[in-house]
Design a protein that fits this description.
Layout: E1 4-6, H1 9-13, E2 20-23, E3 28-33, E4 43-48, E5 53-56, E6 71-74, E7 77-81, E8 88-90, E9 97-99, E10 105-108, E11 114-116, H2 128-134, E12 172-173, E13 180-181, E14 189-191, H3 194-200, E15 206-208, H4 210-219, E16 225-226, H5 227-230, H6 234-237, H7 239-259, H8 262-266, H9 278-281, E17 285-286, H10 288-295, H11 298-317, H12 319-322, E18 344-346, E19 353-355, H13 367-387
Antiparallel strand pairs: 1-4, 2-5, 3-4, 6-7, 7-10, 8-9, 10-11, 12-13, 14-15, 16-17, 18-19
The structure holds zinc ion (ZN) (6 copies).
One zinc ion (ZN) binds at residues 261, 263-264, 313, 318, 320-321.
C-alpha cells in the first residue's frame, strides 16, 4: 500500500524528538499539529496504511527490535506504559511536554508520577506510595519553616543550589513541608493543606512541591484525622461538623440492622458508603476529602440522603427490621422506637431504647438492665444452692 511519511526536519533536531516511534494499531491515519510550545511549531502528518509500523529516525542507539515493556519498576514505582496518544502531559523528570503521539511514556500506578520512557533511567525520586504506607500521618503544623540556611541553600529534594533572589535558581517554598525547593522540584502546584484545614478551617489551596502534591493526593481520601483529638474546638465553631457527627453516629446505629437483614444485604444498602468506608466503621476518623466536602456543603447533603434511605428501609420498607424496634419500657406507650430516632435515649449497657423524656438522665434505672441483673442474681443463687448439698 501507499506509505507516506513526512516529518518536518526541525522536529528531529528539537529535544522533544523521539529516538523512535511505535505504532501498534493496524491501520490509522493521524494528523498532529505540534502546539506552539516549541519555537518552530512544526506540523507532523502521518498517513499509515497496512500493519504495525515501526520507524526509527536514525538516532544513534535506536534498536528496531527493542520493545518497550509494559511494566517497569524503578525505585518502588510501578510504571505502566501509557496507551493514550492525545493527552498532553508534562514529564515529572525533565519538566518538558510529553507528546503522546510520538513519544512513549509511563505513569506510576502507585503515585501517578509520569515521565518519558527516555527519562525513566534518570528517575531519582522513590515512589511516594511507599511513603504513604510508612508515613500515614500528616504533618500537622502550619508551614513549619526553618529557613534556607538550615537547608544549606539547597533544594530540599534534589539538593540543587537555590536562593531567594533567584540566582542560581529560584527558591520556592512548599506550604505543606515549609521547606524550599528548586523550580524543577516545585512547580507551584496548588493543594489544600491539611494543617490549615484542621487548625484554621482554611481550605484555600496553597503552593506545594511536586512531591508534596503527590503525597497529598494519595492521602486525601484516607481517614487519618482524629478531629476530636487534634482540634476538639472545631466542633464548637463549625456547625456542619456537629451535623455530620450526628449523621455518622446514626449510621453506626443502623449498621447492625443491615448486617443481619438479608434484604438489606441483597439491596447492598451499605455500599452507598463504599467511597467512605470509615463511616461504616467509626464516627471519629475523617479524611481530608471529608473536610473539603463538609466545607463545600456536599457531604451534609449526600449523607442526609443516605440517612433517609437507610431509615426508610428499617422503619417502613422492611418487616424484619421493623420487628427489631423498641417499645419504651418506662412509659410503655407510643410508637415503636429506633435508636437513631431523634427523640430517643439509648441505654449504654444493654442498648434498649427509650423516649428521651422518659429516660432523662443517667440516674434513670433501665428496666431491661434491672431485669437482667435480677436474673443473673437468681441464677447465681440457684448455682450456690445446687453446690450445697
Ligand atoms: Zn522527560
Ligand atoms: Zn510511584
Ligand atoms: Zn530540586
Ligand atoms: Zn431489613
Ligand atoms: Zn417512654
Ligand atoms: Zn439497659
Amino acid at each position: 500500500g501507499p506509505l507516506q511519511h513526512e516529518v518536518s526536519p526541525q522536529l528531529t533536531s528539537t529535544c522533544l524528538a523521539p529516538s523512535w516511534w511505535t505504532w501498534s494499531r493496524g491501520r490509522w491515519t493521524a494528523c498532529a499539529r505540534v502546539p506552539s510550545g516549541t519555537s518552530s511549531a512544526p506540523t507532523t502528518s502521518f498517513s499509515v496504511g497496512g500493519h504495525a509500523l515501526r520507524r526509527g529516525l536514525g538516532g544513534p542507539g535506536w534498536d528496531p527490535d527493542e520493545e518497550e515493556p509494559n511494566i517497569r519498576v524503578v525505585l518502588e514505582h510501578r510504571f505502566y506504559k501509557e496507551k493514550s496518544k492525545s493527552v498532553k502531559q508534562t514529564c515529572d523528570k525533565c519538566s518538558t511536554i510529553i507528546w503522546g503521539l510520538i513519544q512513549t511514556w509511563y505513569t506510576c500506578t502507585g503515585c501517578y508520577y509520569r515521565c518519558h520512557s527516555k527519562c525513566l533511567p534518570l528517575v531519582t525520586k522513590p515512589c511516594v506510595r511507599s511513603k504513604v504506607s510508612h508515613q500515614a500521618e500528616y504533618q500537622l503544623s502550619i508551614c513549619p519553616e526553618s529557613g534556607l540556611d538550615s537547608q544549606d541553600y539547597r533544594c530540599a529534594e534534589c539538593r540543587a543550589p537555590i536562593a531567594l533572589r533567584g540566582v542560581p535558581s529560584e527558591a520556592r517554598q512548599c506550604d505543606y513541608t515549609g521547606l524550599y525547593y528548586c523550580s524543577s522540584c516545585h512547580w507551584n502546584d496548588l493543594a489544600v493543606v491539611p494543617a490549615r484545614a484542621i487548625h484554621n478551617w482554611d481550605f484555600e489551596p496553597r503552593k506545594v512541591s511536586r512531591c508534596s502534591m503527590r503525597y497529598l493526593a494519595l492521602m486525601v481520601s484516607r481517614p487519618v484525622l482524629k478531629l476530636r483529638e487534634i482540634n476538639p474546638l472545631l466542633f464548637n465553631y463549625v456547625e456542619e461538623l456537629v451535623e455530620i457527627r450526628k449523621l455518622r453516629q446514626d449510621i453506626l446505629l443502623m449498621k447492625p440492622y443491615f448486617i443481619t437483614c438479608k434484604e438489606a444485604m441483597e439491596a447492598r444498602l451499605l455500599l452507598q458508603l463504599q467511597d467512605r468506608q470509615h463511616f461504616v466503621e467509626n464516627d471519629e476518623m475523617y479524611s481530608l476529602q471529608d473536610l473539603i466536602d463538609i466545607e463545600a456543603g456536599r457531604l451534609s447533603c449526600s449523607l442526609t440522603e443516605i440517612h433517609t434511605l437507610f431509615a426508610k428501609h428499617i422503619k417502613l420498607d422492611c418487616e424484619r427490621c421493623q420487628a427489631k424496634g423498641f417499645v419504651c419500657e418506662l412509659c410503655k406507650e407510643g410508637d415503636v422506637l429506633f435508636p437513631f430516632d431523634s427523640h430517643t435515649s439509648v441505654c449504654t449497657d444493654c442498648s434498649a431504647v427509650f423516649h428521651r423524656d422518659c429516660y432523662y438522665d443517667n440516674s434513670t434505672t433501665c428496666p431491661k438492665c434491672a431485669r437482667l441483673s435480677l436474673r443473673k442474681q437468681s441464677l447465681f443463687q440457684d448455682s450456690v444452692a445446687e453446690a450445697e448439698p
